[in-house]
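Risk mitigation, structural track. In case the binding assays with phenylalanine fail to produce interpretable data, a predicted complex structure has been prepared as a fallback.
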Amino acid sequence: MTAINNPAQKLSDLGVSQPEQIAPLFAEVRARFDSESAAAHDEGSWKQFRDAWLGRKSGVLTLITDNWLKPASPELKRVVGQELNQLRARVESEIASRRAAIESGADQAALARARIDLSLPGVVRPIGSHHLIRQVLQQIEDIFVSIGFSVVEGPEIETPYYNFEALNIPEFHPVRDDMDTFYLDLPKGAPNPLLLRTHTSPMQIRTMEKRQPPVRVIVPGKVYRRDNPDATHSFMFHQVEGLAVDTDITFCDFTGTIEYFVKQFFGAGVKARFRPSYFPFTEPSVEFDVTCVFCGGSGTSAGGGTCSKCKGAGWIELFGAGMVDPAVYGFVNYDPKKVSGFAFGMGIDRLAMLKYGIDDIQVFFQNDVRFLRQFP
Ligand code: PHE
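Fallback model:
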């Protein structure tokens, strides 16, 4: 005999006549209930489950009431009533808690769908980096700032006065040929011609006009020349001007400062030297060289031949410099008998090429990311 489908039958039809037979009967019903309950795991199956047990007309509890309880003899009725009450309590609370579980499960599934999975690979937005010129400029600034220089900047559009005259380069001076530049197309009748500065040296004048000694500045910026582009020339490049003027600055301060810079920038193993040169605004003027960074100053390449970078000389020209020409002080109302100083003008692009072994200045301006990415 099984009670599984049998609340449809009366107790007498099930052969139950003794009170002791009641408990096992209900135990079977409970077992059935428990297994159906475990199977109700979504909204649809839960509703079927609920109706099967609590349905008014043919739910199991109704059938038990109608078929077992009502017709039972008074002797059995008490026991059946007790068992039925217990079963009803169990059924009602279990069905309610199944429902709560299914609802919160659904909530959780919805949450899971909306949740951002931080372990997934993201959309990578490439992060830019400083251009190598900017990086090298930063290195140069750091070195000079650490020994007391400050950084100033000036206009790229200049007057011939600041770019030439005040630097002791009068109108028909031959060095103007080297520094031929771009003049701005100004409206007719404009008072002064304007040009793109050919060097950062105009800022020597502008700085000394504004400040009294002691002056110690560096001036980074873009400069322009009418050069045809090739591996070492560009119509625009970058310089860092340096100027130090005080009452007691000597040639030794000058060369010591430059040597310090060169060693900081290229490394302690590099040697610097200077050769006589000429600039209208420095006297004496020099050209600084460093031992060739490619062959270590030997003049011989790794393969045994002549170093192609220094052409076997072992030295590479770095930049121009000198003691400020006393004539320049006349343009800024400094007393040349009381003050002295030095100035230098280095090409940032050139220093970058030497330090990082780049053999074509044009790559700085082509914005090819394959080049730029090598200097993150
Ligand atoms: N202005 C010079 C040039 O561009 C470099 C320089 C600067 C030389 C300062 C001496 C002193 O060639």
